[in-house]
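I'll show an entry:

:::
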Amino acid sequence: MSKSAWPTFDPAPSAAFIDVDGTLLAETTTFLFARILYRRGLIRRSFLLRALYHGLQHRLGRLDYGRLIAYGLQNIARIPVVDLERIAYENFAEHVKPRLYQGVVDHFNGLRKLGTPLLLVSSSPGLVIEPLSVYLGCTATLTTPVIIERNRLVGIGSGPPCYGEGKLYWAQRWADEHGISMETAVAYADNWSDRALLERVGRAVVVRPKGRLLRLARERGWDVVRPASAEGSRPARRGRPKPDH
């Protein structure tokens, strides 16, 4: 059933696996983060444009995530991780938090109070969305693992990228490690690429779906939610980025 309100649960889900981009806010968190890096002279404009391009590919369900990760690491490997983490918190406060859909915080606060562990499951880099994870009181953040040496990102860890079926891999692994059944869990997502995770859990919630995902949601009887954008939020500017003062 399509509605603007977030769903209710009785009994509470055993876990909530939550996608980020397009599910909790309309923007791409990695693009917002890259824009700050560009404004501060830490990356080239070509990286920002590539991030924008890959965001479009993600929305179309055609993202080559492995290539994106390799390209991203190549461009930020020289930046100390501690600096990236600091900028990520600034990005969250200035650009991510104000853009969260209406009802997101109240809904997931309510789930957490019911005893449901919240887990972000995202293709965005872990350091980019960790501030959001802390803000929502999440139990864990599931993303593509990275290797850090001498305060620099130097490579990708073992396991599949946390994209497409990779999201199901990391969610299932976490559930197995904590003795939680996926049949009693809930997943939130917005993209066709997320369907493996949505089909695995006992209850699926799709946010502002279109095209194939909307048709699949209707066929499966999934919850369809269309939350309003945050009051006062505005889309990230897609034109030439202005310097950060």
Q: What stands out?
A: Residues 2-225 form a domain with the Rossmann fold fold (CATH 3.40.50.1000). Residues 235-245 have pLDDT under 50 and may be disordered. Residues 93 and 131 are 9 Å apart (CA to CA).
